[in-house]
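A further point concerns the way the authors explain their paired sequence and structure data. Nothing conveys this as quickly as seeing an actual entry. An entry of this sort, consisting of the sequence and the corresponding backbone structure tokens, reads as follows:
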Amino acid sequence: MFKVLLFSFLLSFSSFAGEVYGVTMPETMKVGNENLMLNGMGTRKATWLRVKVYVGGLYVKEKSTNSAKILDQGNPKVIDMNFVRDVEAEKLRGGWSDAWKAAVPQSQRTKLQAHFDKFNAAMGDIQKNQKIIVSFTDKGINVKFNGSDKGTFGNKDFSRALLSIWFINAADEGLRDGLLGV
């Protein structure tokens, strides 16, 4: 009986905040000197068949269910994508390009396109159970592709614009709502 109570007690202090389709994410994440909180988790589904592609988590300084507040709050922020299927580089890059065009107005895209092109070129084939982590900062974005640091791209304006693809004219409203915790 004591072991059962002890186990239950320890589970109640688990550092994992959420689980979606077997993917767990911690309640908090440290970026530099900042402690970020898991705002929400959702699943990216693609094609008319609604095939699961990745489980994503959004980490922010202050939780919010309002995408405008998320976009406007200070950096850093993190999107953690845990892939639940293999995706070829060409399809991954095409998905990023489609989302970029849908979310970012043409005038802004023109100014930031060179940053986006460098970011998108850093994408490769991704396998099931691998991750892409994008950190959004005032100096741009940093990309970790399956544990490999792909570098920092852009500037503060590019950071905000890229983050907007999950919220403005989002290709997957279920993912958007999950990231917002609604």
